[in-house]
Amino acid sequence: MSAPIYPGKGADSSHARLAAIFNQDENRTNWHDQTLWWVRQKRDNAARQLPEWEQLRQWASDIKDHTLSNLDAYLVEFEKNALANGIKVHWATDAAAHNSILHEIIRTNGITRIVKSKSMLTEECHLNEYLLQQGIEVVDTDLGERIVQLRKEPPSHIVLPAIHLKKQEVSDTFHEYLGTEKGNNDPQYLTQAARIHLREKFMAADLAITGVNFAVAETGGFVVCTNEGNADMGAHAARIHVACMGIEKIIPKAEHLGLFTRLLARSATGQPVTTYTSHFHRPRAGRELHIIIVDNGRSRQLGREDFRNSLKCIRCAACFNTCPVYRRSGGHSYHTAVAGPIGSILNPNLDMKAHADLPFASTLCGSCTNVCPVKINIHEQLWKWRQVIAAEGLMEPSKKIGMRFMSRVLARPAIYRFAGSAARFIMRWFPFLLKNKSLNPWYKQRELPQAPKESFRDWYKKQRS
Amino acid sequence: MNNRDQILKAVANGKPAPKPLSLPDWSSIAPPPDLLVSFEQFVQAVGGEVLFLDNTEALQQLISTEKASGGFIINRAGEGGVVDEVPDSPRLLESVKIAYIRGSIGVAENGAIWVDESAMGNRILPFICEQLVLVLRENELVADMHEAYRRVQINREGFGVFIAGPSKTADIEQSLVIGAHGPKGLTVVLLPAL
C-alpha cells in the first residue's frame, strides 16, 4: 500500500522539517494563520448564540463515552437493523481489508466509473492510491478534494482540504486540467468550471463512495453531512453506493442526532447546520447500498485508557482552526490523513514510530481541548503520548539531550543562576551566536528580545531590601 | 475468525467499564422567542429566501406561470395541485430548471427543512435541479433540531434529508460561492397555518 506524497517528504519528514518548508513563504504562512483564525472566530460566534452550548458539549461527551463503553453491542445492533433495511454490511479489521472489499465490489460488478465524496477514512486507508495500482480511477467530488487530487497532493485539512492553496494556484491547476482561462482566478468562475466538470462525472458514475458522519444503532441507517451536495449527487445517481465508516461513528439513538448536528457545523465553520444532512436507510429499488465498518487500530485505541476518548471525535476540525501550531505550519507538515491536534493523538496509535514527532507539534496551550465539541482532553493526551514515546525510546536525540541538560540545570539553583547570567551576557555582547538558525532553532521566524540587565531574582532581592 | 468477529472481540476486550447513559432533558433548552422570525432570519443567513403566500391558489398560480414560461419545471408541491411524475434517470433530470417540493418540517434555529423521499419522487431531484422551492406551512415550524428529530421518523422512508439553503462551497480561499453541485438558489414558500 503506497501512501500519498507529502510536499517535501524525504528521509527526514518530521513535522518540524516539513513546517520549516511551509514557513519559507512568510506571506502564505500569515495568510493561512489568519484565515483559519477567522474560521475559529466564526465558530465562537455561532457557539455564543446558544446559551446551552456548554450543556450540549457535556451531553455529547457523555453519549460518546457511554457508546464507547458498550460499542460491541451497538455495532451488533446497528448491523442487525442495517441488514433488515436491505443494506449489505461488510467488516474490515484494517485498511488492507477495507480496500480489498471495495475492490471486490468494483470487480464483481464490472464498475469502471467511480465518484467519491469526502471520507477521511478512505484517506487513512490510502484507497485512491490502492485502486490506482489496480488500474481503477476514483474521482473525488468535494471541490477542495478535487483541487488537491488534480494537483496530486493529499488534503491538508479534514474540512477545508485545499486551505493551503491560493486561488491563483487553483486557477493554474484548472487551466491545466479543465481548460479554464489562463489567469482567471475568480472563485465563482472556477467553481462553475468544477461544477460542469464534476456534473459529467456524477452522471457517468456507476458507483459512489461516501463517508459517514453518524451511524444510528437504533435505526440501522447513517447520516452524511455536506455543504456542496456532492455526496448526494454521487449516491443518488450511481447504481451502487458504498459508505465507509470507522467503528466509532456509531451513536445509539436517532434523537441523539439533534445534539450532534447542532454541534458539528457550528464547531466546523460557524454555520448553524450543514446545507445537507442526509439520512440513508434503504437502497432505492434496483440499487445497492453497502456499508464497510472499519476498525484499523480503533479497537486498540479503545483499549488504551489514556487515549480511548480520542475516539469520541466527530471530525469537525475546530481543534485545527484554533491550534497556533497547525495554523502556522499547514496540514501537510503532519504527513498524515488527519492532521492537527486530534490527528496527533490518533496517529501514534496507528504507527507510533512513524508518528513519534506529532505529539511534539504542539505548545500544549489547551485551546484544542477548550473548543472540542465532545470534550476530548486533546492537550493532555498530547502530553501523555510524549511520555509514552519517550519511554519507548522514540524521541528525537536532540530533544532527549536537551531535556536531560535542562532537567540538570533546573535542578541545581547555582548552575541555573550562572546559566542565566551567561545567557544575558551572550545576548548583549555576542548575539550572533544565538542568531544562528542551525544552532538555535528558536531563532527561526523570531527576533531575539532585549537582554535584561539583571535577572528577576536579583531585581526581586533589591526590591525587598 | 472472520473480520466481523475479530473486530467485535477486540472491541469487547478494549472497551472500558459500562458508563450508563441518562437521557438528556432536551426540554430544558429554551426555544427561540418567535419561531417564524427566527426561521426566516436563518433561511436568509444560509443563502435562501422566504416567500409568504396567502393560499394554495397563489402557489399553484406561481407554478403555472413558471411552467407557461417554458423550461423544465417539476411540481411536487402537493397542496391540492397535480403532482408531476419524476423520471428515474438522472440524465433526464439534469435540465430541471425549478423543482417544487413539499417539505414537512422547518427548523427555526437554523433554517433547515426536512424532506421525505416520497415528496421528492426521485432522491436526486432536490440536488440536481437548478432552483429548488420547498413548500411549508407556518404551523410546521419547530424550535430546534431536538424537536425536529422528535417529529421526524428518520427511517420511515429509505431516504430523508434536512436542507438548509442552496448548495455552497468556500473551498477556494474561503470565498463563499453559491451553487457548488446542487441548486443555485433555494426559495421557501410559507403558506399560512392550516
TrEMBL record, chain A:
This is 4Fe-4S ferredoxin. Coiled coil: none annotated. Residues 303-333 form the 4Fe-4S ferredoxin-type domain. It comes from the Bacteria. It comes from Flavihumibacter stibioxidans. InterPro entries: 4Fe4S_Fe-S-bd, 4Fe4S_Fe_S_CS, FTHF_cligase-like_sf, Helical_ferredxn, LUD_dom, LutB/LldF, LutB_C, NagB/RpiA_transferase-like. Keywords: 4Fe-4S, Electron transport, Iron, Iron-sulfur, Metal-binding, Repeat, Transport. It holds the Pfam family LutB_C.
From TrEMBL, chain B:
The lineage of its organism: Bacteria, Pseudomonadati, Bacteroidota, Chitinophagia, Chitinophagales. Residues 100-191 form the LUD domain. This is LUD domain-containing protein. It comes from the Bacteria. InterPro entries: FTHF_cligase-like_sf, LUD_dom, NagB/RpiA_transferase-like.
